Give the backbone structure.
Amino acid sequence: MDLMLQGKRALVTGSTRGIGRAIAERLAGEGAKVSICARNRDDVANAVAALSGSGAAAFGAACDVSKPDQLKAWIEASAAHLGGIDIVVANASALASGADLQAFTQAFEVDLMHTVNVVSMARPWLEKSSSGAIIAVASVSGVEDYGYDEAAYGAMKAALLYYVKTLAGELAPKGVRVNAVSPGTTYFKDGFWAKVERDDPQGFAKAMAGNPMGRMASPADIANAACFLASAAASFITGANLVVDGGYTRRIQN
């Protein structure tokens, strides 16, 4: 299927590794111009070099997305470099575990407020686009409690889903679609579940047993869904939460 992303200008936060990197690579592979960001300057430079080396038009900058001034500078530089903004993928996450004040603060500032800020800051360009699209990377933890000590993480992902739904109604008349992707357990080298596999084999086995397909998602599985929602192939989809979990969730999706 041609996703008709050729020449589209896309921003992806938290995109030097894992899901964010896979989304940036898939968008670039479809012909989109891509701007990435993460906190580590060297990681950004290496990711931009890899994207450019594959023939993509790529830009990137070091950015702590919890700092609005840094986020704004990256967005403005990206818009100038790409010639505008058509797609925003808010992927960055603090992956804050626990239920203490620090965990809630981190999850609030990164998972929720960075999404709110990137939307607000990119909105003028998105409204000028002929096909504006916003994708928020949420989680199945926003709809179910899996007992993995992730109260802060799950609470902010739940808030993110509500935000996506209300924002979709607000921006639809302006031609901007807003959707969420909710990954289930997703495995990649040095990722959350790789660390669980190393540090808590029993917990990892429990999570793996909950996957009817017998495996966890790969970042590419999530990227495929995100790029579909960003594309013209999903032109009549807005306010949706696309669960990509291989059947891990037991609830009826609605």
Remarks:
- Residues 101-128 form the longest helix (28 residues).
